[in-house]
Write a structure and sequence with these properties.
UDP N-Acetylglucosamine Acyltransferase, domain 1, about 220 residues, alpha/beta, disordered C terminus, 2 helices, nine-stranded mixed sheet
């Protein structure tokens, strides 16, 4: 583990307080800030910044950092900021594609996928096995449910239910995410509960659209 003194080679900077697990690949031009913890079998591509201070205005930046669990892959030009009220957390098996930004206090749960050019504002929670499409964005303090897809160029705000496909600005549910159901690692009973919840959300959304149409 790199926890004794800062390391500088291949233009890699690792703060002396960083803790790194086994079999971690760190490519050139990476910066890892104070108190970051990185688990085993992770891959960090070039020009990644992890653990820079949270971007907050008119408040003192608190002493939180970033925790990255095992088997995480982070591609080129990704930025992951330290937490402000808690650690920013990247859980097991997460894949973050190039040029994405993960703001302070975010939690990315197991096996979620963040496509290229995605922006997550502060305090966002991304559910297990969720998929965020290219250039999508999530408003601060919003939540994306387990097994849910947020379509490319979509903007999410509020709570997005589980096992659904959301598109648009603001993003709205359009269908159940059958692909996730067929490929998930989750158990049957949990999936059944997600499907029930997803159907209720779709029915509610359809009623709202119908009421809006009648008003017009």
């Amino acid at each position: 583990m790199f926890n004794k003194k800062s390391k500088k080679n291949n233009n890699i900077y690792i703060h002396e307080t960083v803790k790194i697990g086994k079999n971690v690949a760190i490519n050139p031009n990476v910066v890892i800030g104070p108190n970051v913890v990185i688990g085993n079998n992770c891959e960090i591509s070039s020009f990644v910044s992890i653990g820079a201070p949270a971007e907050v205005t008119k408040e003192t930046t608190m002493n939180f950092s970033v925790t990255i669990k095992d088997n995480v892959k982070i591609r080129e030009f990704v930025t992951i900021h330290s937490g402000h009220t808690r650690n920013t957390e990247i859980q097991e098996g997460v894949y973050i594609m190039n040029h994405s930004h993960i703001a302070h206090d975010c939690i990315l749960k197991k096996n979620s996928i963040i496509s290229a050019n995605v922006t997550l504002a502060g305090h966002v929670e991304i559910g297990e096995e969720a998929f965020l499409g290219i250039a999508s964005a999530v408003h601060q303090r919003s939540k994306v449910g387990d097994l849910t897809i947020l379509g490319a160029n979509s903007f999410a705000k509020g709570v997005l239910g589980p096992c659904l496909k959301y598109v648009g600005n603001p993003a709205v549910p359009i269908s159940i995410n059958d692909h996730a159901i067929n490929n998930t690692k989750k158990e049957g009973k949990e999936i059944d509960s997600y499907i029930i919840s997803a159907k209720k959300i779709l029915n509610s959304s359809a009623k709202v659209k119908s009421a809006d149409y009648r008003k017009e």
